[in-house]
Design goal:
Blueprint: H1 2-7, H2 11-33, H3 35-40, H4 44-49, H5 55-66, H6 72-98, H7 106-115, H8 117-130, H9 134-165, H10 175-198, H11 203-213, H12 219-228, H13 232-257
Helix pairs in contact: 2-6, 5-6, 5-9, 5-11, 6-7, 6-11, 6-12, 10-11, 10-13, 11-13, 12-13
C-alpha cells in the first residue's frame, strides 16, 4: 500500500501486472501441454518454483537500488501480477496434485483472489482513494514501506539460514530441480525480455520487468509446500539454489540488457 500510494496506480503498473500474470499462466499451461517440458518439470512444485519469483523481498529492493524511480510502477506491477497468480492458483494446483478439489469453483477463486496480499494492497489503496486521503496516507506509509522492504532481505537470509542448518542435502539436486532452477533464472527472464521488446518497452522498462523475472524462487513456494505437505524438500532446495546462483545471474542479466 505504501509503494502504491507513493507512486500511484497508473497504466504502467497495470500493464506490468498483466504481463506477469499472463506470462506465468501461459508458460505453466505450455509446460503441461508439451510432453518434452512436462517430462522435465513433472510436478507443480517444480513448475511454480521455476516461474514464481521473489519479487517482493528481493525484486523491489534490487529495482530501487539499480533503476530510476520512474520505473518503480513497472516493478510493483510485476510483483502484483506474480503475487496474484501465486496465491490464486498455487494452492489450487498443489491440492489438485493431491487429488482434492479438481475444479476451481467460483467460491474458491473469489476467496483466493481477495485473500491474496496483492489484492488486499490494491483494495486498501482504492478505499483510500475513495475517501480522498491517499496523499496523507501515502506520506505516512512510505517510510514504513521502505523499512519493510529493507528488512525483507533479512527475512530471506533468516529463512535460508534455517534451510542450511537442516539435515537436507541442499546441493544434491535431481534433474527436475536443475531444470526448474534454469527456468527461473534464465529461461523465464529471457521470455520476459523478448515480450518486452515486442511490446516496445524502453530500456528502463525492460530492465525493470526482466530483473523481476530473474529473481530467485519466492518464499511463498515453500510456504505452500509446507502447508500442503507436498515436495517441501524440493521447494527448499530450489529456493536456496536460485537465491545463491542469482547473486551472479542478476548482475550478468543487468549487464547484458545494456547492450540491447
Amino acid at each position: 500500500m505504501g509503494l502504491l500510494l507513493k507512486e500511484g496506480i497508473d497504466f504502467d503498473l497495470i500493464k506490468a501486472s498483466i504481463l506477469a500474470f499472463l506470462s506465468i499462466g501461459f508458460l505453466l499451461t505450455l509446460i503441461n501441454l508439451i510432453p518434452t517440458f512436462k517430462s522435465r518439470l513433472n510436478n507443480y512444485s517444480l513448475q511454480l518454483a521455476g516461474l514464481i519469483g521473489n519479487t517482493s523481498f528481493l525484486g523491489i529492493p534490487i529495482a530501487i537500488a539499480l533503476l530510476p524511480t520512474k520505473t518503480i510502477n513497472f516493478t510493483i506491477g510485476f510483483d502484483l501480477g506474480t503475487t496474484l497468480f501465486a496465491w490464486i492458483f498455487g494452492p489450487f494446483l498443489l491440492k489438485k496434485k493431491e487429488g482434492k478439489n479438481k475444479n476451481l469453483n467460483f467460491k474458491e477463486f473469489s476467496n483466493a483472489l481477495f485473500n491474496s496480499p496483492a489484492s488486499r494492497g490494491v483494495i486498501g489503496v482504492c478505499i483510500l482513494y475513495l475517501f480522498k486521503v491517499d496523499n496523507i496516507a501515502g506520506n505516512y506509509l512510505w517510510i514504513p514501506a521502505r523499512i519493510v522492504i529493507s528488512l525483507a532481505i533479512i527475512v530471506v537470509g533468516t529463512r535460508l539460514g534455517i534451510i542450511i542448518r537442516s539435515k537436507t542435502k541442499i546441493f544434491k539436486l535431481n534433474k527436475g530441480t536443475k531444470y526448474s532452477i534454469f527456468c527461473k533464472l534464465i529461461f523465464f527472464p529471457l521470455i520476459i525480455f523478448f515480450v518486452s521488446k515486442f511490446l516496445n518497452f524502453d530500456h528502463y522498462q525492460t530492465s525493470a520487468v526482466v530483473l523481476q523475472a530473474a529473481t530467485p524462487t519466492a518464499i511463498s513456494t515453500i510456504l505452500m509446500a509446507e502447508s500442503f505437505k507436498i515436495n517441501q524438500e524440493i521447494a527448499a532446495k530450489i529456493l536456496f539454489s536460485t537465491t545463491l546462483i542469482s547473486i551472479f545471474t542478476i548482475p550478468i542479466l543487468a549487464f547484458l540488457i545494456k547492450f540491447y
